[in-house]
Prior knowledge:
Pyruvate-ferredoxin Oxidoreductase, domain 3, 6 helices, globular, alpha/beta
Amino acid sequence: MAERYEIRFSGAGGQGLITAGIILAEAASIIETKYAVQSQSYGPEARGGASKSEVIISDTPIDYPKATIVDACLAMTQESADKYANGIKAGGVLLVDADFVPTPPEGEFKLYKMPIMRTAKDELGREIVANVVALGAMIALTGVVSRETGLKAVLAKVPEAFLELNEKAYNLGFEKVKALL
């Protein structure tokens, strides 16, 4: 892994992508003892408007906490793709929700499409865990933390009643992207 790795999660406010970013940062910093920072920004309409969460993971202390050259980006909606799927470095990756991003941006990055919301709804019966499906997918895509670390961080963050659901969501996202690769 590069010394500094930047990941951006973007989508509609309320989709849980800030939480996904926090879980990834905790996976990297607490479990794998790397350096990590997480930051976020919302559109003016907190729920429904485009929002993003950025995670920077590094082997050395992080001097600048904002993403500058994005290695990997997730876009769950067309609006978030238009607004935030920029600055992805050549050779980087963009994962979009196949159903909600009909016209993904183009660039010198690899584009992957997966029906994230539909996967959560149809295979788990709960759209609310789409963020955990997306997190599993992004970890599979980037290898920025191990699969086990990601899962451990997810399970440490969710209420006990939802452990099994979230574990399934994470594994589903991970497996679906591995199948795309």
